[in-house]
Structures are given as C-alpha cells and as structure tokens.
C-alpha cells in the first residue's frame, strides 16, 4: 500500500481509524461487556476491524520493513490472499439492505429461485453429457472431432461455450489457460449473471410493464366514464347546485348513455339503483366528485375490505 499514491494511503488509514473508532464506541455503549458478546453485529464488525487493521497496518508494516532491509521476496501468495480479504469489507453493505426494500425483494427472489436454477443447470448438464457422447462417437477420427470433441469433458465444454454461451468462449478459454480456477470462477459468474440476475431483471420489467399497463387502462376507463357522465349531466341538467339528490341520481342512471358508462366501469347498474336508499339516506346529496368516488368503490373488480362488510351490515 505504501507504494501507492499518497491519497490512497491517507484514505486507507483514515477509513481504518474510522472503523476502529466506530467499533470502540459501539463496544463502550454496552454497560456489560458480556451482553456485548451476544451482539452478532458487534462481533461481525469486530472481525471486519481486525481484518482491516491486519491489512492496512500490520501487513503494510511488514512489507515496508522487509523492503527497507532489502528483502523484497515476500510471499506474494500470502499478500494476494490478504488483499482478497478486503472483499469481506463489502459485506458491511448488508446493513443497508433494510433501507432498500427493492434490493431485499431481488435478493429474496434469487434465494427463492435457487431450486429452479439448480434444476435447470442439472437438466443442462444432462443434455450436454448426452450430446457430448453422440458427438464424440460420430466425429471420432475427423478434424472437427480432434478440435472440439477429443474427450467427453472437452466435448461438454465445447458444446457449452460454443452452443449455449457462444460469445463467452474466447474469454473463458483465455482465462482457463492462465488459471483453471479462474476459468471455473468466470463460468460461475456468467451463469449467475445471465441465468439468474438478467432473467430476474426481465421478469421484473415484465411485471412492472403489466402493472403500469393495468393502471393506465384503469385510468383511461375512469377518465372515459367521468367525461361521459359529465356530458350526460350537462345535457340533462339534473344537478341542482352541483349536488345530486336521490331522484336526480335515479333519473341519471336510466339514461342509456350513463348506464353504458357506469357498466363499462364494472358497476352493476341495477344493484346501484337498489342501493340508492342507503346512499341517500337522510336526504343526503352528493357532489359529482363524491358520486364518481362512489362508483369507483362499487366496481366488481375491487377486493372486499372490512369497510365493505360493515357497510353491508348497516344496509341489511
């Protein structure tokens, strides 16, 4: 780290100091340290702080002291493993998940789809195995067989990279030639990103489009009915003082155009007339907005709520 630009050195040390101070403050907030040992978040933060201190201060000090004495042959594998430990710090982002419900839904959806994804991968593996046997036998002794189907595992890999994931073949081969473990890792990443995340994104987009389409359709129908009823009321001139009485209400519903508009909303016109005594009980009068809101509540596609049961008991 000390060979990096001074900005990165300062930033790493400031972050390490901040994480240590946060952990100490969290620990001191407990009156009993025995109770603090039962806090999983505190223990998790303790692990992250220890890893951060080891990477930023301990490991950097060891590397700096060895380079000062001319011993530059430090275990590079150990350094690489230690640098991979910084990925653990990204797990602190899990504390932000409760604040981001959409991300929680996506993660829970991925967990719920694990069984389906595994089943799909097993079916894919069986298909690759069966077809690799066929191609291995049919192309034996040919140039194509020597290039792509020298053995059953190579046949399965060729079918996977050139048949299922044709665009990924060059990068997978190049990485596998350098490091087989990295080749397996890139395959896992490809399957995770293409089969799980991107397909889930497609599903979310389809769901959102269907929801928006349903809302827009409902909004258009409501606007059409509102305009139709407004036109009928203006022609019939049945509203006195912008208020609708029971007689004017019944007179409006017998109008063919108004009846068609109300029926288009999914409201039973005959049932609405029967409810007029309950709606206008006590000589009540309705404004146009209240009347239209009432129509929206009486649609047959609405879900039943407790308020509807209470209103029904009052009506009975």
Write structural notes for this entry.
- By secondary structure, this protein is an all-alpha fold.
- Among the domains are: 1-99; 211-314.
- It is 74% helix and 1% strand.
- The protein contains 16 helices and two strands.
- The chain has helices spanning 6-28, 33-36, 40-68, 76-84, 101-112, 114-138, 143-148, 152-164, 169-178, 180-236, 246-253, 256-264, 269-274, 276-279, 288-297, 306-315, and strands at 243-244, 286-287.
- It has a two-stranded antiparallel sheet with strand order 1-2.
- It is flat, with a radius of gyration of 35 Å.
- The termini are far apart.
- The relative contact order is 0.04.
- The model has no long low-confidence stretch (mean pLDDT 78).
- This is Ion transport domain-containing protein.
- Keywords: Membrane, Transmembrane, Transmembrane helix.
- Its main location: membrane.
Largest sheet: 2 strands, antiparallel
Coarse structural class: mainly alpha
Task: Say how many strands there are.
Answer: 2
Average of the residue pLDDT scores: 78
- Helical fraction equals over 70%
Outline, from the CA principal axes?
A: flat
Please, how many helices?
A: 16
Distance between the termini: 79 Å
Q: Oligomeric state of the chains?
A: single chain
Order of SSEs, N→C? Answer: HHHHHHHHHHEHHHHEHH
- Gyration radius (Cα, Å) is 35 Å
Strand content: under 5%
Main location: membrane
GO molecular function, one term: monoatomic ion channel activity
Keywords: Membrane, Transmembrane, Transmembrane helix
Organism: Noctiluca scintillans (Sea sparkle)
């Amino acid at each position: 780290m000390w060979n990096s630009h001074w900005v990165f050195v300062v930033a790493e040390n400031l972050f390490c100091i901040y994480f240590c101070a946060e952990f100490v403050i969290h620990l001191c907030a407990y009156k009993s340290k025995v109770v603090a040992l039962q806090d999983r978040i505190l223990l998790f933060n303790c692990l992250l702080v220890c890893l951060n201190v080891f990477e930023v201060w301990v490991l950097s000090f060891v590397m700096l002291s060895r380079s000062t004495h001319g011993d530059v042959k430090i275990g590079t594998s150990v350094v690489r493993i230690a640098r991979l430990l910084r990925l653990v710090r990204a797990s602190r982002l899990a504390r932000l998940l409760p604040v981001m419900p959409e991300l929680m839904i996506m993660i829970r959806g991925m967990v719920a789809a694990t069984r389906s994804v595994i089943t799909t991968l097993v079916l894919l593996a069986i298909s690759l195995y069966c077809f690799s046997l066929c191609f291995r036998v049919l192309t034996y002794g040919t140039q194509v067989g020597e290039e792509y189907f020298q053995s059953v595992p190579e046949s399965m890999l060729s079918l996977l990279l050139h048949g299922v994931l044709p665009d990924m073949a060059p990068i997978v081969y190049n990485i596998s030639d350098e490091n087989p473990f990295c080749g397996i890792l890139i395959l896992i990443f490809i399957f995770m990103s293409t089969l799980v995340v991107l397909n889930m994104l497609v599903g979310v987009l389809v769901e959102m489009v269907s929801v928006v389409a349903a809302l827009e359709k409902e909004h258009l129908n409501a606007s059409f009915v509102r305009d139709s009823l407004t036109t009928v009321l203006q022609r019939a001139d049945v509203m006195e003082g912008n208020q609708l009485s029971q007689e004017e209400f019944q007179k409006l519903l017998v109008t063919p155009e108004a009846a068609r508009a109300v029926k288009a909303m999914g409201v039973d016109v005959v049932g609405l007339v029967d409810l007029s005594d309950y709606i206008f009980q006590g000589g009540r009068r309705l404004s146009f907005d209240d009347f239209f809101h009432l129509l929206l509540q009486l649609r047959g596609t609405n879900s039943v709520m407790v308020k509807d049961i209470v209103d029904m008991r009052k009506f009975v």
